[in-house]
Amino acid sequence: MIFKKTKALKKTEGAKPDFWTVVLIVSLVFAVCFIGYPFLYLVRNSITDESGALTLAHYAKFFKKHYYMVCLTNTVKLALASTALATLVGLPLAYISTRFNTYGKSFTNILIIISLMSPPFIGAYSWILLLGNVGYITKFLADRGIEIGTIYGFRGLLLVFTLKLYPYVYLYTQGALQKVDSSLEEASESLGVHGWKRLCKITFPVILPTVLNSMLMVFMTSVADYGTPQMIGKGYKVLTVAIYEEFMTELTGDTSFASALAIMVTMCMLIILIIQKTSIASKSYIMSALRPPAERKLKGIKRFLVSLPLYIVGLLGTLPILAIIYTSFRRVNGTRFAEGFGLDSYKNVVYSMGRYIRNTFILSAVAIVLVIIVGMLAAYLIVRKRSKITGLLDVLYMFPYVIPGSVIGISLVVAFNKKPIILTGTFAIMIISYVIRKLPFTLRSSVGILYQIEPSIEEASVSLGVPPMKTFFKTTAPLMMPGLFSGALLSFIEIINELSSSMILYTGKTTTISVAIFNALFRDAYGTASALATILIAVTIICLIIFNKVSGGKSFVG
After folding, report:
1. Residue 144 lies inside a defined structural domain of this protein
2. Quick one: 379 and 459 in the same domain?
């Protein structure tokens, strides 16, 4: 008996770790090295001086200097105002779209999605083309004696963010309204609660958690955006612009104060996230949704009037895109526009900026493949191999959700700018930043898909002698792929449009299309910028068409 136990023990000691143990170790190493370590290094950098001694002088400087407090106030004010306006626009439109038989519902949904998927800084540039000092609309109205004032500053930022971000509220709320069980509203009607009262007392409270989630998306996006405030803000400074300016001025020396600013932005995001999560915790509702509400059938002028707001707002959101496409075909003479139309800007892009296009698609393709693989494997660990360690993994992978792109860029630079690992200026650091930026969204999507797949399917495969690793790749992964592919297309769109982290990390050899557009605008090369932006818009539309085919017309927010 002793001999048998000793033999079994030796066999166990010599056994290799199973596939999922290896995946867990690799996943943790990746998360710690490229998410945990850079952020902790950023924190350390913010509380040390040039000699390495601990100090809070950088935070004291932030709170003492009026300029930085104004930046903080401006950031919060802009984010709150953008969130409020985006909600006031998106919420009523979602209700109209789900409750009435509006004209061309699919078409208006496409308009709204397209306006969301191009990055805000391109929206800012296009509104400059329309309402800038010499914009198309500005000149048209000025010739008729109408002065509309400047697009720059707080007013312009609010316009851009509202029209770019209201689709978050619209699409999330639309999905929630379609899942409301009609018996709730019918019961309220039978009790004498009608019209606005029913909407405020029954319908809105039920969808409030979803509305709060969409408002969080708007708030965080507006706080994290760098390109739009830099381009159209002029004297209206926000924290992301201050971070970039401090980082670039300190790039050859001490980056501690830039790190402290980055931590302050992250803390703002975390505070808002905690407030939102606390609010939702007491307002969660579960419905069977067996009887979704039926559309009210309107005819004639009533149907036209109900449909009109969707078309007005949808066209306003896509008008900037049309302005960019129009500008890209205007003839140019240097940085100035000439009479007539042609392909001058596209020729310049192909001949002098072809490498930027190649960089964008190669980096994005590699990043999205890694996002899919890492997200899929991590989701399996989190759902099927629950433990304290996989819980920690979930927290680490979700952490970048609340970190602005510029902060991720700075954390990677300060962490990997010295030996033993030097990644600054390489393609690798760009790919890593894209992966950790988009991983939270793919991870949550993968977790949701796995909860819908019965574990008994995998158990049956293993009971038939198929090893766990082979079972995952032959059985589970194929079941996950349709949903993952749809999410990957949307993440791909966001990666090719990424600017905030790219502006911190890029070098001459790793320049992407979004960086090239941004730099072209500051050289007044509007034709080149328009041609590059049109290429991004075209790729975005193609991806959305593919997504629509794959998902069977399902909304990309679920």
Report:
1. yes
2. yes
